[in-house]
Structures are given as C-alpha cells and as structure tokens.
C-alpha cells in the first residue's frame, strides 16, 4: 500500500514540492494519519498499531524512494520524537500528545542542536530552570527538521549546574508558548519540503508536567535517539535504492556505440558495486531493527547501519549520475534531487565521522573525550 501511495500519489508531486521548497501540506499529513501510517509503532490505546519498528522502516523506505517530505512524517512519528515520548514519557504526557500526532492533526520535532553545539551536543547552553510549577527556558536551537512548522518540540536543555551530559534533560514545549520566536527558514541544498529554522526561547514558561527526562538521564535520551538514527538510515537506504532502480532501467534501454550500456563491462562493474552497497546497507538497517523489535535498538548496530547507509546513498547517487551521463545532470531524471538529499541525511542525526567514533566507543565499552 505504501509503495502504491508513493508511486501513484506522491511521485507526481515530489519534484514540484522540491522546486518550490513547499512543506508537506497539512491535508497530506492527515491522509497519512487516516491510512494508519503515523502510528505504526505507537500504542493501540492511542490509535496506533503497536507494530515493531521494522514495519515502520519498510513504509518509510517505500515513501522515501519517491517523496522524502511524506516519508519524513512517518519517520518523525514512528522513529522520532513521538516515539521517544512514548518510550520515556509518563501516562499523562503520552495521552496528551500521541493521539493527535497519530491522527495527523499535530506534529512534533526534536530540538537538540544549537549554534555552538552540533556534533558536540553536550556543549548546549539552552537552560531550563524550575520556577514553582513551570520551567523557565532560555536559549537558541538550530537545525531542527520541522522547525517553524511543528506544533510541539522535544527540547533538550541544561537543567542542572553540572558540566557535560549530566546536566541535560528534556521537555515537551508547545510551539505557541509565549516567548518563542522563529528565525527565517533555511535554504538548504536538499531537504526541500522539510522545513528548518532557528528557534529562540526567551524566558519561555513550560509546565513542569511537560518534563520528559530530568537532568542525569541524558544516556536514556540518546539511546532513544538511536531510533531516530535508524529512521535516518532508512531514508538514506531509500535514496540509494531509488538511484539504483532508475539506473538499472536506464542502462538497459540507453544505447551507445551500437549496443545497450549494460553490455559494457565497465557498466556492469559499476552497477554491481551499487547493488553490493545497497544490499549491505539494507542488511545492517534491518538487523538493527530486528534487535529493537518493539523497543530500543543496539547503539552499536544503529551506528553501523547509519554510517553505512549514509555513505552508500552519497556514493550510489553519484555513480547513478555518472552512468546517466549528461542526462544525470538534469533535473528531468531526478538524480540530482536524490544526490542533494543524500548529503542532507548524512549530516542529520550525527555525521558518519561521529558514527565512526561511536562505533569504536561501543565496541570497546569506553568513552572518548574529544575536548582534551
């Protein structure tokens, strides 16, 4: 069903939305909710399906082959901040926020990075100070996928006067809370149709009941964030598979020197490398998903999957452009859009460089202090 929806409904619209930098219309989000695609991994009591994360990844891949903005909605609900709220939040918080998200009536984005805290997330300076029954939040957040359009933000903030990760916790912040303002929308190379902007918080009052995780449980938050990285890896996998699919069709039909491109051994070697990389990425993504089941995946398996899938998407889309020759450099064939988006997913959620550090850290069971 997801494949049919992607090919018949979203494929004709995706290039137009990309060219115009148009966020996914609200009615399309509700369409995904009505089809049950936004609650795949979320509890039945809130309108979800309570399925394992692999089910969601299969849907994300099919949608993302044609339209990343549509796939992103499923991604955020089934592997992103809504899932973190479900796994770490209390009953009241879950009951308040999850049903409208599952129905497609509201969206939630994650706000971690700051102007001076990207890969070094624990350098964040946004503060949340408890004042009676509210937290007063002050700071600036950047690189928020969904920024300026989401209804709520899962916001990481420093909640205690201790250095590093130990002082960080998270709150759910409603976008219409007084004291919140938004910067101009970023004009990104890719990710078009997935809005992003700075969020400025000036003494924003957030009810204490919106606390998701207090200071001292940063590790829980980032273990939950592993699911988001698994969704990210699937977006990259979908991009690579789409580039491969288009290339296979092209090299069979396109002729040069009197024969199809696929008859040249150089073409065969390139296509074989593309297939090898895509299949290796898929196996790593699916292994991490099976480990997760209905819960959290192995951080090591996720970092292996994300790093591999991110780099596969960049390499395979580049090779696809080469095999298409001049046609690959046009907008008509859609490869440039895939290539632009491939670079975006490799930057989001922890770069391949950071994933390599995490791979060694998880493998050896020790942390590496990059500040010394």
UniProtKB/TrEMBL annotation:
Residues 109-204 form the Acyl-CoA oxidase/dehydrogenase middle domain. Residues 223-363 form the Acyl-CoA dehydrogenase/oxidase C-terminal domain. InterPro entries: Acyl-CoA_DH_CS, Acyl-CoA_Oxase/DH_mid-dom, Acyl-CoA_Oxase/DH_mid-dom_sf, AcylCo_DH-like_C, AcylCo_DH/oxidase_C, AcylCoA_DH/ox_N, AcylCoA_DH/ox_N_sf, AcylCoA_DH/oxidase_NM_dom_sf. One of its GO terms (molecular function) is flavin adenine dinucleotide binding. Residues 1-105 form the Acyl-CoA dehydrogenase/oxidase N-terminal domain. Keywords: FAD, Flavoprotein, Oxidoreductase. Pfam families: Acyl-CoA_dh_1, Acyl-CoA_dh_M, Acyl-CoA_dh_N. One of its GO terms (biological process) is fatty acid beta-oxidation using acyl-CoA dehydrogenase. Its cofactor is FAD. PANTHER family: ACYL-COA DEHYDROGENASE, ISOVALERYL-COA DEHYDROGENASE, MITOCHONDRIAL-RELATED. Belongs to the acyl-CoA dehydrogenase family. This is Acyl-CoA dehydrogenase. It comes from Streptomyces spongiae.
